[in-house]
Every structure is written in C-alpha cells, then in structure tokens.
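Need tokens for this chain, all 397 residues.
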Amino acid sequence: MPKLNSYSLALAALPLGLAVNAHAQSGLLQNHFERKLHPREAWQRLDPFDFSVRMAGTTTYDDNITITPVAPLKDLVFNVTPGLTVSTGDYYEQTENFLIADYSPNFQFFRRYNQNNAINQQVDVTGRYRFRKLTFGLTHRFEKVTEGVVDAGSRVERTVNATELKTNYRLAKKTTLDVDLKQTLTTYPRISSKRWENDDFINYEVLRRVKLGVGGKLAYMEIQNQPNQTFEQALVRVQYNLSGKTDLTATFGSEWRQFGNGQSRNWQPVATVGFSYVPQDTTRLTVSFSRSQEYSVILLGQNYTVTFAGLRLFQKVFTKGVITVGGGYQWLEFHGTGLVAPVARNDRLWNAVAGFDWNFNRHWTVGLLFQHREDVSSLQQFGFTDNQVSVQVSARY
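Here are the structure tokens for all 397 residues:
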C-alpha cells in the first residue's frame, strides 16, 4: 500500500476543518491542513515567483446554523472557496530563505436563511531569512469571517489582524535563543481588543533529538470599555523528535495576571501540548492539549479559562482513500476581571468528527464529513446541539 504522505493527509483534512475553539465554531474550510506544492507543480512560474491556485466547493446540511438551544434553524449551506498562493525561495523544504503569500476568500450562501450570507476573507504571509547564526521569521494573518461563536452563542463577525516576528540566534553548538514579538488586533460587533506579546526562550539540546527550553512571556492587552490586562508567564518547553515517527512539543508553566482597575493578581497554570505519532506509513495519530485564559466577547467584564483536549486519527485505505475520525473536549470557566462580579457560567463542549476522502489524483479529491457538536452550559441560553453533514470537491494546481 502506498505511503500516507503529507499530501494524502492534507487532502483528507481539507473538508474537515478540525479546529475546535471557544471563539470559532463554524468548522468547515477554516484552519485546514494543506499539502505543500512542489515547485514543479506550480500553475505558473514567473522567475523567481511560483503561482498556485485551488478551488473547493462544499455543500453542508446544518441543523443549527446559529448554535442556539431553542428553535434551531436548519439549512443547506454552500461554500465556494478559491485560493491563490505566490511563493519564492525555498518554500517547499523551508530550510533556507523563502516567502509565501496566500489569499483565500470564502463565499457562503444559505438556501433558506439568506440573511446569513457572507463573504469571508483570509490573507496569510509567511517568510524567513537566515544569516549564519541569526534567523528572522515573519508571519501576518488577516481574516474577516462570520461564523458561530460558542462564547457568544450565535453567529457573529470577527476581524483579526495578527503579525508575529520570530528570531532565533545560535549562542553555541547546542544552545539557541528565541525572541518572538506578536501583535493581535481583534474586532467583534460589541468589543475590540489590542494585544502585544513577547516570548523569550533559551533552548539547550540535551540529547540529539531532545531540546529543553526555559523562558517566559510578557503580554499587555487593551479591551474596549474594560480594564486593561497585563500578564506574565514562566514556562518550560520540551521538544522531542524520533526519526519522523514521533513529534512532541510541550510547554508548561504559570501565569500571573493583573487588571487595570487595581484588582490583585490572578494566578493559574497554563499549558500547550502537541503530539504526533506515525506507527506505520498508512496511519497517523495527533493529540493536543491546552489551557489558557481569554476574554469574553459577549459577557463584558468577564474572562474565561479554557481547557482543551483533542485527538485525530488518519488511516489510509484502498490506496486512494483516507478515513479520519476524532473528537475534542473543552471546559470553559468564567470569572470576573478585576472588580467586576463573576458570572455563574461554565460550559462543557465536545465534538466528534468522522470523514472519508477519495484522492482521484495529485490534484483532485472528494470528501464526506459528519460532525456533531454539543455544548452543555450552566446558562441555558448558551447551550446547543449541532449536527453537520458535508460533501466537498476540491482541486489544487
């Protein structure tokens, strides 16, 4: 049986939209895996730039398009998502200098409740430049989407501008220094925020495939009509790679948060874990876990701690087919910011997905997906149950 390479896994995930987040819950065609095109597969080449194009069409039956607990609205949703990528340099292996710019609008149409029609936008720019000991990396993402948001309990529009500058400097043969700067501007209908972050790590190669890092994060956040927030994190990071079969990146630590209205410090543990295991050429398992604190976009003066765990299993079958199954669980605990009284809200959200994709060739694929989501909230107006069945056809050149 042929190997389950990155191309097959990418096509398997295209219609799935597997990301689970307390903010974004629309699912399809968001944050999907994409295979990297080899330079010889480029649609057009105008030295030194390569151009690639893609198109995906999805039809989804959704039995709760507004993720509400009472009188849910059922509808057929049609998504048309073209895309254009312009690349130069070593964008395939990404071991040397490269630059990638990608634009992908999403045209969303509802058969019955067409007041929900939307044109979503997404732009991504990623690049890296290396000197002998110093490496610079720059990423920028702009997205403007209308989708179901668990925190809000309805469909809302979100605009995000996120820019990140990463630097890595080799101090010695086994020691490196990471300095990351990030700015995120986010806008919702009722609230907007500005966030600045600085992550610093000193990394040491303990063994040939094991790196240990010690560092921290400093961040400042301005939130519309709410107290500003400042927080610091002390972190330990472990990175492990075993011959391409096992990859692990785990970060653990503590966070101290202060509020602009004089409230005393708020402490909590934080974590991010990503694990990938390839026991054989036709199977891949991914596991993720995270714990962090976010601000509420609907309950003003409230933050929430979100704990997430999820897994995905990819299995190649019948040479050109890929089965994907998985699920995730989130626990949201709300609490007041500063002197604001806490709202008695806790959400337990879980989802399950099952999909099958058939790769006709290196460019065309068709997929079928079922997704179930359920939110059990202590405030009845935020709970919901949602089922989606989707069919997608996609092409990439």
